[in-house]
User: Which sequence fits this backbone?
C-alpha cells in the first residue's frame, strides 16, 4: 500500500492553483499569481498546467525557505542557518530569479564566506552579474589563503561558462558542431571558458568587439559579460546606435549604466527616424519602439510628477540649458521607461487594473493591483474596488517611490546610498504597509551601518534605530543599537526613547550589561 505524499505545513492553502513537489517528495500548494510577480522563470496564470505536479530539484527544507519570499509575509533572515543552507537557498534564488531574496543571500554569504571560500567563490562567479563586487573580492581573497587544488576543483567543476552548450552527459558521437561565428570571434569567446587568464578585449576593433559581445550573449558565456559591458562603454561615442541596440536587445544582462549612457548619446545625436530604422534593422522588441517614442515626446506631460518624485537637478553645462524639460530629458535614464518594473508615469493598462496613490506632497503614483496584492500585506487586493478614487497616503513621494520599487516584479534597490533619515522613513513605511521585502533590506542596511568599523552614526541616529527596532521587533538591531547608546547620558536617553523602550534600556543600564562590550574592547 503506497503512502500518501506529505504536504508542507506552511504552504497548503486550499485555494492554491499550482502543486510543486520537492526532490524528497514534499508537496507545496502555491499560488501562481505570486510566482508570476516574484519570479522570472515560472509561467504566469495564463498557462494551464492541467493539474499536473511540477517537480523541482531542491529538497523541502530549501523550498520552504525560498517560497516565503514570494508571499507578503515576514521574510526569513537566515541568521541561524548553516552555510550549507544559505548556499543552497542562494542557488535556488538565482535559479528561479527571486529578486527579493538576492540581497539577503549576498549579505549572509559575506558573513559565512570563511566557512567554504572556494564554494562561495564558485557560486558568486556563476551569478557574477547579480552580486556586488565586494562579495566576489572577499571570496577571492579568502581562497588565496587555500591550497590551489580544492579551489581549482570548484572552479573547474562549475557549469557556469555557458548555458547554451550541452554538458558532459550529452554525447556528440564525434559529430562536428557547426557555429555561425567566424574563427576570430570564437577563438576569443572560448578563452573565457577555461581556468586561465582571460582576454581583456582592450585591443579589439569596435566591429569585432560587437561581434564578440553578441556571441557572448548568444551562448550565455557569463564570465565574459562584464568585460564586454565595460569595453562597449568605451566605444559609445563612436558607435552609439550599435551599442545602444545591442544593450537594448540584451537588456537585463548589462549594468543599467551602459544603456543609460548610450541612450543619452543617441538622444543628442540621432533623429527619431534614424533611431527607429536602426531598431527595425536590429530586430528589437516592439516595446523599445514605444519606450523611445515616450522618451522623446512625453516629458511635458510627466515632468512635474517626476521633478517632485526624484528631485531632478538639471545641469547648467548642457547645451540645451535654456529649455528646462530638455535638460531633464538628457539626465533621465532610459531604463526607467524601458524596464516595465519601474513605477508607471503616466499610468498604463486599463484603469480597473490600477490603484492610484497620492503622496502627502501631491504626487500621483500608479501601481498594478495584482502586484500590490502579492507584494504587500496592507493594501487591498483586486476584489476590493476603489472606483477610481485616489488613495491618500501620509508619506512623501520620495519615500513612496523607494518603497514601491519593492512591489514585484522589479529589481529591488539595495539602498546603499540612501541617506539615513530617508532610510528610516522607508523602513517605517515598509512596516506600516507590510512590504516585507523592503522590511528585510532596510533592516539589513541599518545593521550594516551599526556594524561599520568607522563610526558613522550619531547618538540621535542610534536612538532612532533603537526605537524603530523595538517598535517593530528586530532583535538583532535592538541588541546592536542598545550597545551603541551605552555611553549616552541617561537624561538625554530618557528624553528621546519611546515609552516602551525605557524600562528595558534602564534595566540594561542599571545592571551594566550594555557596558560589557565596551569594557571587553578596552581590556
Assistant:
Amino acid at each position: 500500500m503506497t503512502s500518501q505524499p506529505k504536504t508542507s505545513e506552511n504552504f497548503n492553502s486550499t485555494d492554491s492553483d499550482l502543486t510543486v513537489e520537492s526532490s524528497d517528495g514534499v508537496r507545496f500548494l502555491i499560488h501562481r499569481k505570486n510566482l508570476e510577480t516574484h519570479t522570472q522563470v515560472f509561467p504566469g496564470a495564463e498557462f494551464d498546467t492541467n493539474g499536473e505536479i511540477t517537480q523541482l530539484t531542491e529538497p523541502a527544507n530549501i523550498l520552504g525557505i525560498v517560497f516565503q519570499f514570494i508571499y507578503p509575509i515576514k521574510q526569513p533572515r537566515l541568521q541561524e542557518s548553516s552555510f550549507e543552507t544559505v548556499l543552497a537557498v542562494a542557488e535556488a534564488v538565482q535559479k528561479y530569479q527571486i529578486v527579493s531574496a538576492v540581497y539577503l543571500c549576498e549579505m549572509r554569504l559575506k558573513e559565512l564566506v570563511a566557512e567554504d571560500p572556494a564554494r562561495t567563490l564558485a557560486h558568486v562567479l556563476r551569478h557574477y552579474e547579480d552580486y556586488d563586487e565586494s562579495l566576489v573580492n572577499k571570496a577571492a581573497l579568502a581562497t588565496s589563503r587555500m591550497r590551489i587544488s580544492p579551489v581549482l576543483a570548484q572552479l573547474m567543476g562549475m557549469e557556469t561558462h555557458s548555458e547554451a552548450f550541452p554538458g558532459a552527459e550529452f554525447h556528440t558521437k564525434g559529430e562536428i558542431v557547426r557555429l555561425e561565428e567566424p574563427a576570430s570571434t570564437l577563438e576569443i569567446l572560448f578563452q573565457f571558458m577555461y581556468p586561465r587568464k582571460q582576454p581583456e578585449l582592450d585591443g579589439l576593433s569596435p566591429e569585432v568587439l560587437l561581434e564578440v559581445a553578441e556571441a557572448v550573449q548568444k551562448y550565455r558565456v557569463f564570465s565574459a559579460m562584464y568585460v564586454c559591458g565595460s569595453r562597449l562603454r568605451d566605444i559609445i561615442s563612436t558607435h552609439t546606435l550599435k551599442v545602444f541596440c545591442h544593450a537594448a536587445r540584451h537588456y537585463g544582462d548589462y549594468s543599467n549604466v551602459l544603456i543609460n549612457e548610450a541612450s543619452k548619446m543617441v538622444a543628442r545625436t540621432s533623429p527619431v527616424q534614424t533611431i527607429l530604422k536602426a531598431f527595425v534593422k536590429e530586430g528589437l522588441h516592439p516595446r523599445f519602439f514605444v519606450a523611445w517614442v515616450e522618451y522623446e515626446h512625453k516629458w511635458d506631460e510627466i515632468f512635474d510628477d517626476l521633478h517632485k518624485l526624484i528631485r531632478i537637478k538639471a545641469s547648467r553645462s548642457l547645451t540645451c540649458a535654456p529649455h528646462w524639460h530638455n535638460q531633464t530629458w538628457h539626465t533621465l535614464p532610459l531604463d526607467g521607461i524601458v524596464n516595465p518594473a519601474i513605477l508607471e508615469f503616466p499610468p498604463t493598462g486599463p484603469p480597473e487594473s490600477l490603484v492610484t496613490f497620492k503622496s502627502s506632497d501631491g504626487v500621483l503614483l500608479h501601481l498594478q493591483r495584482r502586484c500590490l496584492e502579492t507584494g504587500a500585506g496592507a493594501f487591498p487586493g483586486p476584489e476590493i474596488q476603489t472606483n477610481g478614487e485616489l488613495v491618500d497616503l501620509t508619506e512623501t513621494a520620495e519615500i513612496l517611490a523607494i518603497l514601491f520599487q519593492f512591489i514585484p516584479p522589479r529589481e529591488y534597490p539595495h539602498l546603499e546610498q540612501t541617506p539615513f533619515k530617508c532610510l528610516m522613513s522607508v523602513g517605517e513605511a515598509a512596516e506600516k504597509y507590510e512590504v516585507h521585502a523592503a522590511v528585510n533590506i532596510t533592516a539589513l542596511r541599518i545593521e550594516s551601518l551599526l556594524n561599520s568599523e568607522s563610526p558613522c552614526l550619531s547618538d540621535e541616529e542610534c536612538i532612532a534605530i533603537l526605537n524603530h527596532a523595538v517598535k517593530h521587533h528586530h532583535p538583532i538591531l535592538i541588541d546592536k543599537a542598545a550597545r551603541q547608546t551605552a555611553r549616552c547620558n541617561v537624561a538625554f536617553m530618557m528624553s528621546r526613547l519611546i515609552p516602551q523602550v525605557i524600562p528595558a534600556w534602564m534595566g540594561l543600564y542599571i545592571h551594566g550589561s550594555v557596558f560589557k562590550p565596551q569594557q571587553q574592547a578596552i581590556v
Observations:
- The domain at 6-115 is CATH 3.30.710.10 (Potassium Channel Kv1.1; Chain A).
- The mean pLDDT is 75.
- The radius of gyration is 26 Å.
- The first strand starts at residue 6 and ends at 12.
